[in-house]
Prior knowledge:
mainly alpha; 50% helix; THAP2; coiled coil; TNP-like_RNaseH_N; Transposable element P transposase-like RNase H domain-containing protein
Amino acid sequence: xxxxxxxxxxxxxxxxxxxxxxxxxxxxxxxxxxxxxxxxxxxxxxxxxxxxxxxxxxxxxxxxxxxxxxxxxxxxxxxxxxxxxxxxxxxxxxxxxxxxxxxxxxxxxxxxxxxxxxxxxxxxxxxxxxxxxxxxxxxxxxxxxxxxxxxxxxxxxxxxxxxxxxxxxxxxxxxxxxxxxxxxxxxxxxxxxxxxxxxxxxxxxxxxxxxxxxxxxx
Length: 218
């Protein structure tokens, strides 16, 4: 059985051992009992349709009663033909093998171009970053004070007004155009809460006031 497997696979240097396994794509777990009988899975076999014409039936009858004088010929015909349904099996035709080789070489060439383009983009990005850092150092814009300020705002959501930041970003933008969004305590909001509390003590009698570290500007 291992020898038939090696012949059907046609992989140079491959020798089936006790640890060799069958491709799980072609053999289901519940069909392991068939491996001792045939090497091709049941769910991939194609049923052969018999001929129904009178001429074909006569030909089959003549073949069934014909004597088998050459045992070697019958043995050669009974050997299973190798299957090319695996991607790692080399095709028997030189033309098909050359076509697969050309396809692989084209794929390698395409990946090589993508790698070179990616390296070029990375190089340009590094050059731009170095140039930007050099300009900031010349203008004395990189210092410890700026670093501390950026660290202070690093955990805040600066895209709050963007669509991906909040579901009602348009309503927030319209609201910000009508209120005072400057840094500091918003007295207008406190006055509004006080009026609401006087109108409806049960609903606005207990509110939570959240102080933000960054003002949301227009």
